[in-house]
Amino acid sequence: MKMQSRSLTIAAAMKVFAIGLSAVLAAACSTIDVPVAKTAPPRDAKNAFSHADFDAVLKKITDKTGRVDYGGLRLEHAQLDKYLGQLAQTSPENDKSLFPNKWHQMAYWVNAYNASVIRQIIEKNITDTVGDSLPSRMKFFGVLSGVIVGGERMSLDEIEKKASFSGDPRVHFLISNGTLGGPRLRAEAPGGENFDKIAEEAAVEFCNDPRNVRTGPKNNDNPEGSLTLSEVFDRFEREFVDYARGRGVAGPTVRDAINFWRKDNRVPVNGKNYYFDFEWALNKREPGQK
Fold this sequence. Notes:
The chain is mainly alpha-helical. It is built from 11 helices and 6 strands. Among the domains are: 1-29; 30-164, no CATH class. Strand 2 (145-149) and strand 3 (152-154) form a beta hairpin. It is globular, with a radius of gyration of 22 Å.
């Protein structure tokens, strides 16, 4: 009887702790607050979901290096909010008819991620750095923050996973997390009709940029064949390896995937990989910068 009573007491204490923890997390959580669209979802010329509003926003605020005019956007973000309202209403999970193939679905999740990052930066009035500590990353990318997508609340991390559903690692060259260390934000929003082309262009650009793939080590150690790589290749290594295997490479490494996009300057197949320290500074356009 005493043992049973003690077990009940522990169970009750655990339940109280769980309820308390849930309350703390709920209080700490924040969700981007934009009005959900009440009109029919926007459609493009092929009757698929249209990203025209976000494309127009990106063309206004993003320069060719991927830096963003957050200051200007803070003053006028009605069109961005309109687009986020469209995302809040519709997704590939609640209206498949608007997303007829994987390209349309990947375009949606990539754009949803990038638009949500931008909106969160101006909503939280971030001016210097994004996620330079674990707590700040949880608040920005993880469970403590989110956006409504297709009627469901999702964190940025969850949206990023949705974008990866196809196993095509090129999505990671299009997903911009608001930092100088991540892929640059392009001044265009890919759609289903041009996603494959834009993803390929982004992959070639990323893999030929010495800030992402550099011959040689990170420090003075210089083993033969060493490379210093963007942390994108470390974080999503399995996706890149699987991609190379799917294209016929036996026993592939991440280097085999990189070489698909380095046509004239292939990296050595063997050697030690180093990784750049990630730069969490905000990808903002400085005043007067063009």
